[in-house]
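My current task is to audit a protein record that another person submitted. Please read both lines and tell me whether the tokens look consistent with the sequence. Do not assume that whoever made the record got everything right. I have pasted the whole thing underneath without changing anything:

===
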Amino acid sequence: MAEDKEGALLEKVLAYERQVAGDVRLRQSLYDRIRQLSRPQKIMLALRGDRESRMILLKSYDPQVYHFLVQNPRLTSEEAVELTKSDLLQPHTIELITRNREWMKNERIKLHLAVHPKAPTGLSLNVLGLLSYRSLKEVARNPYVRGPVRRAAIN
């Protein structure tokens, strides 16, 4: 019964999302509606929502929601760039991002993953091999990069 109510509310949010695509005032209302959703509802929306709702969910600062956003097949490279900037990403979410070939063509995503504080060191070292010379120099100059990653970037 509770699942039916959650599903119905999620369907209402999705329908409202399509309805308000162009109106700024209504989009603010969409932001308020999404903020009021429970975590399971946000997760369901992260898996199925359109660009506007995904951008709102990126501002939710919830690692679980981020994990399910990565699994949304409509997530674009630019949204993935914004996602990789977050310090709240968990290692398993970072690994999911690295498995997407389309996203790993984006230099900014690779750079963010190489210097991410929660990325496993082995994964960071693997991503270093995919970076351009210019990005490697940036990694080497970054004071917040872990020692092994910085040494590998310098060499």
